[in-house]
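Entry 14. Ran structure prediction on the chain below.
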Amino acid sequence: MLTRVPGLRTIATYRRSWLIKDLVAGVVLTAILVPQGMAYAELAGLPPITGLYTSVLCLAGYAVMGPSRILVLGPDSSLGPMIAATIFPLIGANGSPTRAVALASMLAILVGAIMIPSGVARLGFVADLLSKPTQIGYMTGLALTILVGQLPKLLGFSVHSDTLIGDITGFVKGLTSGETVVAALGVGLFGLAVILVSQRWIPIVPGVLVAVVLSICAAVALDLADHGVSLVGTLPKGLPPFTIPNVSASDFGVLVTGALGIALVALTDTISTSSAFAARSGDQVQANQEMIGIGTANIAAGLFQGFPVSTSGSRTAVAEQSGAKTQVSGLVGAAFILLMLVAVPGLFRNLPQPTLAAVVMAAAFSLADISGMKRLWSVRRTEFALAIAPFLGVALLGVLPGIGIAVGLSILNVFRRAWWPYSTSLRQADGLPGYHDVRSYPDASEIDGLAILRFDAPLFFANSRAFHQQVQTIASSDPRPRWIVVSAEPITDVDTTAADMLEELDQALNSEGISLVFRRNKGPSEGEDRTLRADPDDRSHALLSNPGGSGRGTWIAGREGSFKGV
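Output, structure tokens:
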């Protein structure tokens, strides 16, 4: 039971000496969770209060089923645009906030319904569907979308659009028509500067909290509301209500599509964050249990008027720096938020909306990885192209199409590497024993009558034609080789399609007086010819263990096999 419910394991192994540290970390987390929760709720197109409801319930849900001791879940800047992109087409530009909350809550429940069964089925490996280059491109495009979308709010006006081009057009129109509220711009830029300066120069200081407190003080002292600055206002008092989202059946198609994308991004983000922090503490990353933990957190949030959540690297770092030892720190944070909702719901009533925009924009800066894009350009242009495609997809087509492009390109890149793997000729280099890649040693010499090919992938139906063409090209070269040797260490498997191709190729080469030889095959060897121990029913292995064709070519399998006649 303890292994299936990590929360119970935490309680069973909890040490009294951890309590003070968890309490302190929980208090510090509260100071960040409240403004970020409200800001990311508005980023998702939802009332600020839903960000607080979400923070409370997801922290409680993950504390029960999440395997990480200090990972902090909650509303996330990377998911906000995805939530908005999913629910906006269903509610329209001036839709009811109540309907928006219901749709977002159902979206969270669907994310959980995807995550938990997937974790039970041990499908945590799907986090690998987003390669690093596509993640960099997607997140950078997302950062651009968030920044442009928050600019009007920073300047004190609003733009209704669901595309980057529409946001840019609306922003320029509002700017040129004089809609800017100078006081809003001033308090927004001030808050953004405080956050960025503290992150860069005084990371130990919670810049978000400082910006929020100073902005509230400025709003009261300067009476910013009378100068056209929108304020958050008094939040609803009381605990988050248990609610079954009321959603029509016609909405589920769009919601499920959005939930799939959100689930993948949340899982990928969580695995990468948990891996980074686990490496510091020597813990093991449990991808499947993480899926169950994230799923539980999302369902808990969705049943209490919340929206989809993910891991926050910045909040987790704060928890770690504050001395957090277990998920008790998250529960403490959740308890303080509840206390605020019950006792002092008006605590943030004078918080300027431009300050929330500054909080979101500061988070967007952390999503963008310009240095990563530069590195891809200088190291490998093909992977830079893999990053640019989802970047443009997010920027030009939207958030959900962008994640679809990112996943599709990652999968296609896997197949590309298998279909057209790296292959090269091996030759003798002066002063070096053995045979070496001619691309690394272009002056290496070839032995008369002998050509050596290295094919860096398993042989299967998708790349068998490519292998066949490469061998035929070598066979038709001038002068024609008498032996074509395949250095087969990278060939870890041969399926039946490839086995049939090899048999036909061997016979064709034998008829031309050319012997095809496999050397350094995987697997144990025995006998005079160092042949492979083969299952008699497995034709692909049996083929490699017998002489082929007319007898001129010898299939020699063995890690250190020698060549007859060479």
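Residues 129 and 411 are 6 Å apart (CA to CA). Will compare against last week's run tomorrow.
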